[in-house]
Amino acid sequence: MGSRKNSPILITKKPDLNDLVLRAKLAKGMGHNYYGEPTWPNDLLYIFPVVILGTIACNVGLAVLEPSMIGELMDPFAIPLEILPEWYFFPVFQILRRRPWGDHVVPTGSDQPLILLF
C-alpha cells in the first residue's frame, strides 16, 4: 500500500478525433506521433531524406572548401631515412636505397658476373 502513494499517476491524453482541424492536419500528413500518426513511414520518410542530404551537403562543402592537401605530395617509392632493417637485410637495403635505376629489381647471385663486368 505504501508504494502506491509514492508512485506517480500516469495520464494518457488522447486526441479528440472529432475535431475538424486535427482531422484535416492528419489527412494532409501534418500530424504528430502524439495524435496517433505512426512513426513509420510518415515521420521517418519525411525527415530522413533531409538529414541524409544535409550530411552529404556538409561533406561535399568541407571537401571543396578545405581540401586536405597539407604539405608536399608523398612518393610511395621513397624510403624513409629513419628506418633500418635487420642486420642480414642491410646490404640489400643499401643497394635498393642508393641505386637510381628503378625500384623493382633486386640483384641476385646470377647478376653478380654482370655487375662485376661493369
Automatic annotation (TrEMBL):
InterPro entries, alphabetized: Cyt_b/b6_C, Cyt_b/b6_C_sf, Cyt_b6/f_cplx_suIV
TM ranges: 44-65
GO molecular function: electron transfer activity; oxidoreductase activity
GO CC annotation terms, alphabetical: thylakoid membrane
UniProt keywords, alphabetically: Electron transport, Membrane, Photosynthesis, Thylakoid, Transmembrane, Transmembrane helix, Transport
NCBIfam families registered for this protein in UniProt: cytb6_f_IV
Subunit structure: The 4 large subunits of the cytochrome b6-f complex are cytochrome b6, subunit IV (17 kDa polypeptide, PetD), cytochrome f and the Rieske protein, while the 4 small subunits are PetG, PetL, PetM and PetN. The complex functions as a dimer.
Protein name according to UniProt: Cytochrome b/b6 C-terminal region profile domain-containing protein
Lineage start: Eukaryota, Viridiplantae, Streptophyta, Embryophyta, Tracheophyta
